[in-house]
């Protein structure tokens, strides 16, 4: 919601609550689609943020983590200094991005996901890598 205080630098708990709600809604809206769907952020990201911050996990997050599963393969992109930038929406610095990444990977593993590191290549090469890897993983699972 525009103009609200659900931002990490204004009201971190409200930000966590809002992220959990939106990630849950995104899952419900997109995960059951018959086509392949990629999520930029997820319920697991919110769980990592709760662990990193020490804030309270909202009930919607706790319930969703117990009942909802994404595909088992998660593509992770380590912070990449050449592409990193801050702006009005991304106020954290590169060191904070590294700290975030360093909590995301073990949180995903804790919840049973397999991590595939994205190579630092061009956008087109990363897209080709993701699609080829996702296709191979899906074929191996069937």
**Ends apart, CA distance between termini:** 41 Å
Q: Describe the biggest sheet?
A: 2 strands, parallel
Low-confidence sequence ranges: none
Structural class: mainly alpha
Name the features.
mainly alpha
Q: Could you explain the architecture of this structure?
A:
The chain starts with 11 loop residues before the first helix and ends with a helix. It has one domain. The protein is globular and about 45 Å long. α4 (94-110) links the parallel β1 (73-76) and β2. It has helices at residues 12-30, 43-53, 59-67, 94-110, 123-141; strands at residues 73-76, 114-117. By secondary structure, the protein is mainly alpha-helical. The model has no long low-confidence stretch (mean pLDDT 88). Strands 1-2 form a two-stranded parallel sheet.
Write a compact overview of the structure shown:
By secondary structure, the chain is mostly helical.
Secondary-structure topology with pairs:
Elements: H1 12-30, H2 43-53, H3 59-67, E1 73-76, H4 94-110, E2 114-117, H5 123-141
Parallel strand pairs: 1-2
Helix pairs in contact: 1-2, 2-4
């Amino acid at each position: 919601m525009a103009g609200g205080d659900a931002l990490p630098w204004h009201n971190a708990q409200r930000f966590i609550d809002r992220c959990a709600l939106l990630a849950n809604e995104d899952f419900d809206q997109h995960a059951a689609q018959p086509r392949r769907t990629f999520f930029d952020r997820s319920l697991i990201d919110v769980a990592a943020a709760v662990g990193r911050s020490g804030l309270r996990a909202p009930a919607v997050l706790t319930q969703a983590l117990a009942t909802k599963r994404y595909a088992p393969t998660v593509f992770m992109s380590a912070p990449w200094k050449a592409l990193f930038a801050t702006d009005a929406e991304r106020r954290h610095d590169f060191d904070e991005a590294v700290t975030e990444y360093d909590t995301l990977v073990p949180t995903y593993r804790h919840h049973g996901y397999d991590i595939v590191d994205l190579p630092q290549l061009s956008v087109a090469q990363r897209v080709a890598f993701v699609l080829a890897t996702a296709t191979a993983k899906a074929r191996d699972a069937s």
